[in-house]
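Lab notebook: predicted structure, single chain.

Context: the supervisor wants predicted structures on file for every construct in the current expression panel, including those that have not yet been purified. This is the next one on the list. No modifications to the sequence; it matches the entry in the shared construct table.
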Amino acid sequence: MRITKYYSPNFDVKARSSKSITVIIIHYTGMQSERESLKRLISPTSKVSCHYLIKRNGDIFSLVEDKNIAWHAGKSMWGKYKNLNKNSIGIELENKGHKHGYQSFTKPQITKLIQLCKNLKKKYMIKNKFILGHSDVAPLRKIDPGEKFPWNYLSSKGVGIYPKKSRQKKKSQKTTDIRTFFRNLYKIGYRYLKIKFRKKIIKNFQRRYRQKRVDGVLDLETLKISEILAKKSNIA
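Prediction complete. Output recorded below exactly as produced.
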């Protein structure tokens, strides 16, 4: 797999051990063009970066070496991890994002992303449950990679987790409860769980797992999906 080196100065000076790399975090650039995205990711004044940037034509840039801590996740938590920069590989996908005309991701982009994730999984023994979106680890601040990102397809190719479609019978239906939903999310790995931000949290969960209905309403299907994922999760 061809990867082009493109240096960003935005990383911690002290290198980390390969054993500390346990998470992959997927982002979109949220900029109007590839040129603007790259300019920001390599600018010393921006104080942001990533390890890899995948263009819409599938070309991959390496901006920060894996051994270095890039600045992409910001204030974040997942399971036992806090401030995930130190434990993660950050991958940016070129996309204008919700503010500038959110686009579907291209086939070349997703194909190369799957290849890259598989290589990283093998190299660092990263588990599928630790392949995450920025909105998973920082749901009160971020919404990327968003509802057009094909998590289901990635999972079918062995990258990440996506639940099988639930077949909920009428007899098993019950009322929804936000506290039950939050307990499920905690088991899955989510940590920013504040009742006053319930709509934002539900919407970000739906952006990943119920992309045809991103309305922030906790219905039975959204609750059921959280239950399926919670049962399969062993995150402490």
